Amino acid sequence: MSADLLIRNRWVIDPSQKLNGGYDLVISDGRIMDIVTTDDGKTNDGKTNEPVQARETIDAAGCIVTPGLIDLHAHVISESTQLGVRADSVGIEQGVTTLVDAGSAGAWTFDAFLKEGVEPSITRVLAFLNISGDGLCRGGAELSDMSRLAAKDAVTLIREQPSIRGIKARMSASVVKNNGLAPLLVAKQAAREAGVPLMVHIGNAPPTLSEVLSLLDEGDVVTHAFHGKQGGILDVRGQLLPEAESALARGVLFDVGHGESSFSFRTMQQAKALGIAPYSISTDVHARNLNGPVHSLTHTMSKFLALGFTMYEIVAACTSAPAKVLGLEREIGTLAPGAYADVTILRRETMPIALTDSEQETILAKEAVFAQQVITSGKVLTCT
Ligand SMILES: [Zn+2]
Questions:
Q1: Could you count the other beta carbons within 10 Å of the beta carbon of residue 113?
Q2: Separation of 172 CA from ligand 1 center, angstroms?
Q3: Which pLDDT tens digit goes with each residue over 20-62?
Q4: Ligand 1 centroid distance, CA of 301 (Å)
Q5: What span, in angstroms and rounded, lies between the C-alpha atoms of 370 and 384?
Q6: Which residues are near ligand 1, the ion (C-beta closer than 5 Å)?
Q7: pLDDT tens digits, residue range 172-219?
Q8: What is the whole-number distance in angstroms between the Cα of residue 100 and the centre of ligand 1?
Q9: Bridge partner residues of 129 (DSSP)
Q10: Which domains does the chain have, with CATH numbers?
Q11: Residue 74: which of 347, 305, 295, 284 has the closest Cα?
């Protein structure tokens, strides 16, 4: 078998195929061609390995190979919002092959997303479109004026633009002001009409979390699910809110969306003790949290290692899980033959490291995850 690239002697973790072991990865024409177990000389489907003649071979034992990491919540429109960061700086340069800009752009500012987010980037950049026509491009209370909601234009644009994978609505008091649940109802209606999931930001009430959760359906995403503010998923006794329990049972997905004020070690530890894990781990990286507490997706992954999650669980939450939210699980977030050859090569290093959450709480951890190399559609790049 001849191929463009062979990645050898690596520990592969690919939760989409329930793989966690020694495999070689064969890449050709920007796609995964084959994944071959190195233990018994058999391919994944039981056939005997053919020797691979590859033009390029990567061999660095001791690393972990995963599907290209996906960050489901980031902000990469830098000029129009003064909030976003350059996509490649938090994307491929940090081992993240796919970034989702969560609501920086609305239907009326979508050109800025294409110009500032997509066009200059090697990273695959997708979007959740803000239900506000302005997105975050004009200040921070984008759902306070119902006349600026752009449901019809959002639905039209989603049908035209495959890079839009969902709708975003920020449901906290500072964003909706006196509008209560009304913007959420508009956003939900538009999402159902366009056939895409809804991502809802939660924060300070009103509206209350119970009111917000009761409107969400299977496949919708709650971002900032593990924040440490009052009125979160846990009550004062640390018990799960009944509405959160029934939302989880319905298939509503809890995303991390770390951010500058939206991830608490304490909340996550209490939730973990109740058997609740995040469905997806995302950063909400933007200009104000890039230099702390967020830094990068791999830094966020290190925090979950420190909290006692397994590497397999963490990789699933950064690959197969977000790919499913995006409806792209056959193309990205997987190393199955035929998928895009998006691959991240990670190092798990034993070292003392201080990890800080959004509540300024610090854990002194003993190990951290770093991105070493990334392959995007078959092209090999070294991470910074
Ligand atoms: Zn955000």
A1: 29
A2: 12
A3: 999 999 999 999 999 988 755 555 566 656 788 899 999 867 8
A4: 18
A5: 9
A6: 284
A7: 999 999 999 999 999 999 999 999 999 999 999 999 999 999 999 999
A8: 10
A9: 167
A10: 2-66+338-349+368-382 (2.30.40.10), 68-325 (3.20.20.140)
A11: 284
